[in-house]
Amino acid sequence: MRIACLVKPVPDPEHYDRISVSPNGTLVRAGIPIVMNPSDRNALEEALKIKERRGGDVTVFSMAPDDAEGVLREAVAMGADHAILLSDRNFAGADTLATSYVLAKALERFGPFDLILAGNESADSSTSQVPSQVGVWLSIPALTGVAEIEHNESLTVRCSSEGGRAVYEVDLPVILAVKRGINSPRYTSFAGIIRANKTEIKIVRAEDLGSDASMTGLEGSPTKTLKTSVLDICRKGEYVEGDAGDIADRIINELRKAGALRE
């Protein structure tokens, strides 16, 4: 089975206070450490589990600047067989539509793949749009909110949402966008790290994909930021003393006065 996994480098949550927004609405990430998007780690873990059960290989794709190579090496250290970095200045500033277009072009270029896995959402934007959009570009079905995958002769997929749960029996190819609670991602091993350092990270430019420049980056993004502003948020702290019951009553009264609680 040929499995693809979509991985996004995101700013390290410990440095969110250093992130700013440019006038065109894109995040300014210069100098901020990047990590693998949390739900993408879960997607990669599912890909590796399916590979171990059914055989085949796992290829990781990421659209990011060249300095994201370390995130892809981590994916290889976890067990991925191949890693492809889609990096080009023409891809910068992409919204979800332009991002999904580039990912779909890459999947076509290096595919076909039997199964494509991705995280349900990214930590830095949380749109949950890219996996489904990739499915539209490739004309294959996509399921989001995937909470469980049973690895039988076919795949049984359980999806959860605010409205409840749904169970699907899926044929391949298919795109599955998994939720964070689906598994506990494995740690990288020493042997995996050594292998990752020896593995070639294939860097692919726009010309290698034959992509339409009008469909990528800011030019290919119909979502436009008209205005950005920085809010000046000041919070006043107050210590409350007394026994636990008195403290609880005081907090509840303050919340009621603020309109945060109703009778």
Task: Please render the helix and strand layout as text.
Layout: E1 2-6, E2 9-11, E3 20-21, E4 27-28, E5 34-36, H1 38-54, E6 57-63, H2 69-78, E7 82-86, H3 96-110, E8 115-119, H4 130-138, E9 142-151, E10 155-161, E11 164-170, E12 174-178, H5 190-198, E13 201-204, H6 206-209, H7 244-257
Parallel strand pairs: 1-6, 1-8, 6-7, 7-13, 8-12, 9-12
Antiparallel strand pairs: 2-5, 3-4, 9-10, 10-11
Explain what you see:
- The radius of gyration is 21 Å and the shape is globular.
- Helix content is 30%, strand content 25%.
- The strands form three sheets. It has a nine-stranded mixed beta sheet with strand order 11-10-9-12-8-1-6-7-13, sandwiched between helices. A two-stranded antiparallel sheet has the order 2-5.
- The protein has a single domain, classed as Rossmann fold.
- It starts with a strand and ends in a 6-residue tail after the last helix.
Descriptive key words:
Rossmann fold; alpha/beta; nine-stranded mixed β-sheet; 263 residues; two-stranded antiparallel ribbon; globular
Concise structural overview:
The protein is an alpha/beta fold and 263 residues long.
How much helicity do the residues have?
Answer: 25-40%
Number of DSSP strand runs: 13
**Stretches with pLDDT under 50, minimum 5 residues:** none
**CATH architecture classification name:** 3-Layer(aba) Sandwich
Q: Encode the helix/strand succession as letters.
A: EEEEEHEHEHEHEEEEHEHH
Task: Describe the strand arrangement of the main beta sheet, using strand numbers.
Answer: 11-10-9-12-8-1-6-7-13
Strand content: 15-25%
Number of helices: 7
Rough outline: globular
**SS-derived structural category:** alpha/beta
How many separate structural domains? 1
Mean pLDDT: 88
CATH H level, superfamily name: HUPs
What name is given to the CATH topology?
Rossmann fold
- Rg of Cα set: 21 Å
